[in-house]
Amino acid sequence: MKRDSSASCRVNAPVQTIAEREAAILAPYAMHGSQSAGREHPEPEHPYRGPFQRDRDRIVHSAAYRRLSSKTQVFTGALGDYHRTRLTHTIEVASVARTIGRALSLNEDLVEALALVHDLGHPPFGHSGEDLLDDCLAAEGGFSHNAQALRIVRELETRYHEFPGLNLTREVLEGQSTRIAHDVESTRPLLEVQAVEAADSVTYDTHDADDALELGLLSLDELLTVPLWAAAAARVRRRTADLEKGELRRAVLHELIDWQVGDLLQRAAARLALGDIDSPVAVRRAELVIVASGDLAAQKKELEAFLRERVYRHAEVLSHRREAQACLRTMFEGYVSRPNLLPENSRRRAAKTGLRRSVGDYLAGMTDRFARREFERLFHGPTPGAGNPPPPDLE
Ligand code: MG
Question: Would you tell me which CATH number, out of the four given (2.40.50.140, 3.50.30.40, 3.40.50.300, 1.10.3210.10), belongs to the domain 12-213+317-379?
């Protein structure tokens, strides 16, 4: 039978420009590509990709993004392989943030770019690695994953001969800067940034509890004593009674995300319906729009306090933390005292940024696996580092 190709093959149909498509589907308070403040190094526009779509693609093709697959979110690989890695967390954030973005007619390309870049600066071993590097670099201004993400996309990635970094739009850089200057409220973040912040928080609260359950660090009964989990379970049971434990756990996880996202959307839609926030400029002047309502926000805080106490400070998690930090500290001091062990590009960069910052950049770029391998190879053998050649450059 001959296929009717009229629906998929519209060669002669008039082609909508990116600006026309965005004007048709985005709300006035969304950040349209045509309103972008541009890039640090000016470039011609792409013929068929908008500026934020291009940013998203640049992030996905970066080495730092690929390495997220072997970086710790909360639980290290030593604990098993059910739990989230930094990459799967990032994809979950992008998924929830896009749901929020689409429901509010925001710019989904920008939302996705912001979500995919938001944890790019994490060093190996999660927050344990971050705290350790912050300590090692205290005299050089410290270390934070948000600031490091900016260093990566502005300087450290080498993918283009025309400019250093990825040369992302100022809106994506601004999203990351907002994360650094969390308390500087002179201007509010764009709604696309707010969507990613909210999605990050909904996502990690939910998946950290799920991972902790799977790893046996917590029981379902213990979690059901936390008001937010108890309320979510009650909502589930109102629809379906008599679920066995595994089914209840999965249903509560879905409910927690769906309920919280629904709450964020309801609140944001009601605020935006007033009509006074009618441009990105107005968004920057208004109070935050995409935030949880009072009750849910309070219950979320209780859940976070519970997770802090029972999961992030669990003896097993703390023991991995100590071991990971000892490994990274040995490496930091080892490279500082023997810079010849660094790859060529890190030694070159040391002349510009100082040796300690360059060592910090090199260590922060490593995956958990690569860090452990280099630790064993250079600093933990019978003759630490003796005669070992430097590793290949990480780019
Ligand atoms: Mg995150």
Answer: 1.10.3210.10
